[in-house]
Specification:
Helix content: 40-55%
Strand order of the largest sheet: 1-2
Number of helices: 3
Distance between the termini: 93 Å
Largest sheet: 2 strands, antiparallel
Shape: elongated
Structural class: mainly alpha
């Protein structure tokens, strides 16, 4: 079998090829516009698309509200009642709570020796001797 890399020029060319390949790999993974930067840009684009979708939905709702305010009396009356608190003469105002009925109330025993924040027994703070 012939040994191709016996000459000095072959070894230099092999070394140069290895350096070039390593340089290209470094530039691909860590350089400007490399793989990591590309992934970050893709993530930013995805986040911006989601933000744009939320803003489009908000704009759609606002446009519908503007249309209702321009063309309907009911929307103006609803706005006056909800936002400004206005009521008609001889009308009773009733406010409903929006608290969910699914919550569990927490009852604390005032005589308990357990700190409710940590669920550990309260231990008195040791007194420090006063030094003159």
């Amino acid at each position: 079998m012939l040994n191709v890399f016996d000459s000095t020029s072959s070894k230099v060319l092999l070394g140069l090829a290895i350096v070039l390949i390593a340089g290209f790999q470094y530039k691909y993974w860590l350089g400007d516009g490399g793989h990591h930067e590309h992934l970050q840009l893709i993530q930013k684009i995805q986040q911006q698309v989601e933000d744009n979708d939320e803003l489009k939905e908000r704009n759609r709702v606002l446009a519908a509200e503007v249309y209702d305010l321009k063309n309907g009396v009911e929307a103006i009356e609803e706005h006056a009642r909800l936002d400004l608190g206005l009521i008609k003469p001889n009308e009773t105002f009733v406010q409903m709570s929006t608290i969910s009925t699914q919550y569990k109330p927490i009852y604390l025993d005032p005589n308990a020796k357990v700190d409710p924040r940590t669920n550990e027994e309260d231990s008195p703070i040791p007194e420090q001797p006063i030094r003159p």
